[in-house]
């Protein structure tokens, strides 16, 4: 059992794979376990989950810096961005970064739009010519950070900006509220069960979205049978029906993360990443994710019991709330 930031984690060994799946703190595990037990006993009532959904929505809005009324509920990033892609004019020009995570790019490509890739560092200066810029705030493959300030300065007034904050929200303090869409899955740095995802949408984007996938939840308990169409008048009109048990966990995880000192969280995670970089004679960075490009690195880490991932031939590690200096040193020992 580890103690960190006022809570405990039951993580075993050296776990550095948060960019793939986060390790929840004990209160999140307990909340989900209790809900599963109640479900198994036949004690669950559907309306009881509404409070969990609302709590998670409000905490996500707080993390992004937007009103809760602008937040759409989904189950995965790709599904939420599919809603955006389907609402664009045919053949829209979409700009993204090279090696972007495909949950960001595939919805636009599958909808038949003209999706162009450029190096991440060149994206801001190329943004003005696009109808849509769709990109991750932090790259999944290697942890590279998007220059948000440069993008905001260079983007054209008619260009929609869609940001995937899945690999940043939870450790990277950043001004995201200016974007037209900020989407994130909850099962990585937000330490929630898979099946909870959210998207904050600007008023101008919301006016263009078609609620084509909306079901009863987009209208509420008074809209579960029969016509006419009746949906909520805010972003909830685009909601998918929630994955209930996922939102039980999110309702504990997100408010707790939102309550933490964001600077302290950032300095903790990036500080550990820089401890590793220093030991590997790499330059200091500003990301909690480190891509280790050394022959046999992934195999050595696995042999030493270090949980990591392999992306584009590099061993990818990520430092979050539960990690310690000993975890960074374990990587160095394994690679020595």
From TrEMBL:
<feature type="domain" description="Aminotransferase class V">
    <location>
        <begin position="50"/>
        <end position="281"/>
    </location>
</feature>
<dbReference type="InterPro" id="IPR015421">
    <property type="entry name" value="PyrdxlP-dep_Trfase_major"/>
</dbReference>
<dbReference type="InterPro" id="IPR015424">
    <property type="entry name" value="PyrdxlP-dep_Trfase"/>
</dbReference>
<protein>
    <submittedName>
        <fullName>Aminotransferase class V-fold PLP-dependent enzyme</fullName>
    </submittedName>
</protein>
<dbReference type="InterPro" id="IPR000192">
    <property type="entry name" value="Aminotrans_V_dom"/>
</dbReference>
<dbReference type="GO" id="GO:0008483">
    <property type="term" value="F:transaminase activity"/>
</dbReference>
<dbReference type="Pfam" id="PF00266">
    <property type="entry name" value="Aminotran_5"/>
</dbReference>
<keyword id="KW-0032">Aminotransferase</keyword>
<keyword id="KW-0808">Transferase</keyword>
<dbReference type="InterPro" id="IPR015422">
    <property type="entry name" value="PyrdxlP-dep_Trfase_small"/>
</dbReference>
């Amino acid at each position: 059992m580890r103690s960190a930031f006022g809570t405990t984690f039951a993580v075993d060994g050296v776990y550095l794979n948060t960019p793939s799946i986060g390790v929840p703190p004990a209160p999140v595990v307990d909340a989900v376990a209790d809900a599963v037990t109640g479900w198994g006993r036949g004690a669950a009532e559907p309306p009881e989950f509404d409070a969990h959904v609302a709590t998670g929505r409000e905490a996500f809005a707080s993390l992004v810096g937007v009103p809760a009324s602008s937040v759409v509920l989904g189950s995965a990033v790709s599904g939420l961005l599919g809603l955006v892609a389907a609402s664009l004019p045919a053949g829209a020009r979409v700009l993204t970064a090279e090696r972007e995570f495909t949950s960001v790019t595939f919805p636009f490509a599958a909808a038949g739009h003209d999706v162009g890739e450029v190096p991440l560092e060149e994206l801001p200066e190329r943004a003005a010519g696009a109808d849509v810029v769709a990109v991750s705030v932090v790259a999944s493959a290697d942890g590279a950070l998007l220059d948000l300030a440069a993008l905001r300065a260079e983007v054209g007034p008619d260009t929609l900006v869609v940001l995937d904050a899945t690999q940043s929200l939870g450790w990277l303090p950043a001004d995201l509220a200016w974007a037209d869409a900020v989407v994130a899955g909850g099962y990585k740095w937000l330490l929630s069960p898979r099946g909870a995802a959210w998207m904050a949408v600007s008023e101008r984007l919301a006016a263009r979205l078609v609620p084509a996938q909306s079901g009863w939840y987009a209208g509420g308990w008074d809209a579960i049978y029969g016509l006419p169409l009746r949906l909520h008048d805010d972003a909830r009109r685009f909601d998918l029906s929630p994955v209930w048990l996922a939102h039980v966990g999110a309702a504990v995880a997100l408010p707790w993360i939102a309550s933490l000192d964001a600077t302290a969280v950032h300095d903790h995670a990036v500080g550990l990443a820089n401890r590793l970089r220093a030991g590997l004679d790499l330059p200091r960075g500003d990301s909690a994710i480190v891509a280790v490009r050394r022959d046999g690195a992934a195999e050595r880490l696995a042999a030493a019991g270090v949980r990591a991932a392999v992306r584009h031939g590099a061993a990818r590690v990520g430092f979050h709330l539960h990690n310690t200096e000993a975890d960074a040193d374990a990587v160095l020992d394994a690679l020595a």
